[in-house]
Amino acid sequence: MADQNIKDQQEVYPSPQKYNNGNHDEESATIQSKELHKKKRMKRLAYILAFIVFQTGIILLFSSTIMKIRTPKFRVRSAAFESFEVGTAANPAFNFRMNAELGIKNTNFGNYKFQNAQIVFYYDGIPVGKAIFPGAEAGWRTTKKLKIAVDLSSDSLALANTNSKSQLGNDINSGVLKLNAQSKLSGKVRVTFIFMKKKSANMNCTLAIGLADTTVREINCQ
Ligand SMILES: *[C@@H]1O[C@H](CO)[C@@H](O)[C@H](O)[C@H]1NC(C)=O
Fold first, then answer.
1. Bias regions of kind Basic and acidic residues — which residues (predicted)?
2. Same domain for 80 and 108?
3. What residue numbers bound the domain in which 46 lies?
């Protein structure tokens, strides 16, 4: 019974002498394991390198697309008149009440929040009317539309010591009057929760007003 037990043990735990055929095999086994180790290390290094390249690519892609902060475009989208009075070439004057729709086109992958601002309309470089509008937010990749009403009057031309009044006479003769609209938004673009950048958006639009048809014929923005 005891003898049987010892036999079983020998089979389960074979003696090292039985399988170890000398020093040579031991050495080659060590070399093999070293090589295996080296291979594993190289493989790991290759993985790390591939990951770094991949990560760099992702960062470059993000910084050139999603994270890139673009200046929002600010312009007059359309305008129509509520009241329209215009003088003659000999007695040049105008008095308009205009409703305009402004657009803030935000192409960023983040909201654009801007503060209160004003828009000034010029005739021949002289201010002829202005409107103030409240700050708002343009959602990411959207165009925020704002409506303003503004009174435009040639009264200030008489006060300005320039040739603008005679210029206005010429324009009334030609049937087209050009006004320039300028504004500046101060705000911030927020891309993700942490990344934020100040951005101002400038408007510089020219409106060509047809006096016969009392409409804004053309709007050109820089
Ligand atoms: C606005 O645009 C006109 C051209 O339409 C240009 O002559 C003028 O200098 C611009 N003004 C500003 C303030 O950018």
1. 1-10
2. yes
3. 12-64
